Amino acid sequence: MSTAIDQTFLKDLDISSEDLRMDVAVGMYASHRVTLGRAANIAGLDQLRFQKHLQSLGIPLHYDETDWADDLRMVREKAVS
C-alpha cells in the first residue's frame, strides 16, 4: 500500500518523508498497533537498527512471558537438532 503526502504538508511541518515514516513506525509500535518487524519495515530499517532507535528514544520493547517462552522453545529445538 502506498500513501501520497503533499510535499507542502511536509514542508510546513519541516519534516522529511523519512522522518515521517520513522515517526509513524515508532508511534504505531509504541501503541502496540504493529509488531517490531512490521514497524521496522515501515521505518525502512532492519529490526536491530529499529530496536536501537527505540532504545535511544527510551521506548521499551514489547517482550512478555509468551515471547520469552517461544524464544526458549526455539532455542531448545535448535539445540536438539
Notable traits:
81 residues, mainly alpha
Number of contiguous helices = 5
In total, how many beta strands?
0
Task: Give the mean pLDDT.
Answer: 87
Tell me the distance between the termini: 39 Å
What's the number of domains?
1
Fraction of residues in β-strands:
under 5%
Main beta-sheet annotation: none
- Radius of gyration over C-alpha positions, nearest whole angstrom: 16 Å
The rough form would be described as: elongated
Return residue spans where pLDDT drops below 50 for at least 5 consecutive residues: none
- The helix/strand order is HHHHH
Category by helix and strand content? mainly alpha
Helix amount? 55-70%
Describe the structure.
- This protein has one domain (7-80).
- It contains five helices and no strands.
- With 81 residues, the protein is an all-alpha fold.
- The longest helix is centred in the C-terminal third of the chain and has 16 residues, at 65-80.
- 69% of the residues lie in helices and 0% in strands.
- The radius of gyration is 16 Å and the shape is elongated.
